[in-house]
Amino acid sequence: MESPEMTNPAGDMVAEASPAPPELPKVGARYIWFMVLAQFGVFMAFITPIAISLAIRVQTIAPGHAEYLGYITGTGALFVMLTAPFMGVWSDRTRTRIGRRRPFMIGGMAVGVVSLVWMAVAPSIVLLGLGWVLAQWGWGTVLSNLQISTADRLPESQRGKVGGLNGFATQIAPVFGVIIAQFFTGSPLLLFLVPGAVGVVLVTLFVTLVHEDDSRGLPKEQLTVGRLLRKYLYNPAHFPDFSWNWLGRFLFYFGLTLNTTFTAFFFAERMDVTVDKVAGIIAALGGIGVLATTAGALGGGFLSDRLRRRRAFLVLGGAVMAAGMTTMAFSASLPVLIAGSLVVSLGIGLFAAVDQALLLDVLPEKETDAGRFMGITGFATSIPQAVAPLVASAILLIGVSGGQKNYTLLFLVAAALVLLGGLVILRIRSVR
């Protein structure tokens, strides 16, 4: 006999005392490695413009107006934040012979390639910004559907491992992208298209070589505008573990953004030099930091699967980050600054990889609404990225006068938030 159901105000169907869904079968090495390669490719195509290509184009089109880069990237992030749940709902309800996710990977890749060409030839800042919005939409759609695919396919016993490997791939991809881009700075078209070509090849391998079941036999749902808008909301009381995970992720990324927004200015202040003098140090530290982040991602991901524990690793990740940020807050020399920064990087990798696995553990309605809830999860990172820089600017002015900035307070607040983000995860009851 089926359990009774109720509908909440947001349109969520909630089963009372419904049994846990059966464990998914393990995926093979083909799925895992082509997923890792595909995410590597997306980050090559998608993050390289943020790292270098967009800055070069802004400098070419509008010399002396570096602030335009912030306007462009902020607009793109806002667009994705507002459209991600809609794209997820659309993906959930797509019925094709090649499945629900692959059509969006193909379409997103096409839009992404067009956007790269657009940005390479854009004659004005407005058109460059529009190209970046298209890039965010296209490549972001590819990435989100790759991640939704992991929700569709990965059993609990493999989520930490795959999360760690994906974390490793997405950390090193931008480094490779910047290295490649340096050879094409004289050609705007190649500057964007060469990293983009890597993305196209690797995503195409996943789309063509990884099977996805025909979705035409799945139940269909008619969506009105009102019902679609309600999909942006849900009742947290009906999915408490998902809600605690969302809050923990929100606090973590808010603290992380507070920590990273003014890094260059913070280093310059502590070293008593101008900002341009610390660029080389930060670049070198970023390269070493990738190794620390990767160690945290791979170690945490694999161990969380082996030990069948998630929460302890997330608490540890938040605590490690908080320790690193506190060290930086009270640092007075370059070696201590570097040590604190590397500890932060280790914590980032540990938290992010295991949190991705935990999200898949607690994601509601995976069979029908995985894309919708993955889109809602995106708010937990996009809102901090938009709001935290403004909050950081206000914190820097507390308790100081003249031209001074209170970096110590800023980093202590950031440490408290990431620590709290880890501790909030302890409220989750369905996952150990």
Automatic annotation (TrEMBL):
Principal location class: membrane
Q: Name one Pfam family in it.
A: MFS_1
The UniProt entry lists membrane topology as: Multi-pass membrane protein
Which residue ranges does UniProt annotate as crossing the membrane? 31-56, 68-90, 164-184, 190-210, 250-268, 280-300, 312-330, 336-354, 375-401, 407-426
Keywords, comma-separated and alphabetical? Membrane, Transmembrane, Transmembrane helix
* Entry annotated with the keyword Amino-acid biosynthesis: no
Q: Can you say where in the cell this protein is located?
A: Cell membrane
The record places domain Major facilitator superfamily (MFS) profile at: 34-432
A Gene Ontology molecular function term of the record? transmembrane transporter activity
Q: Which GO terms describe its cellular component?
A: plasma membrane
Q: Check the record and name the InterPro entries matching this protein.
A: MFS, MFS_dom, MFS_trans_sf
The protein's name in its UniProt record: MFS transporter
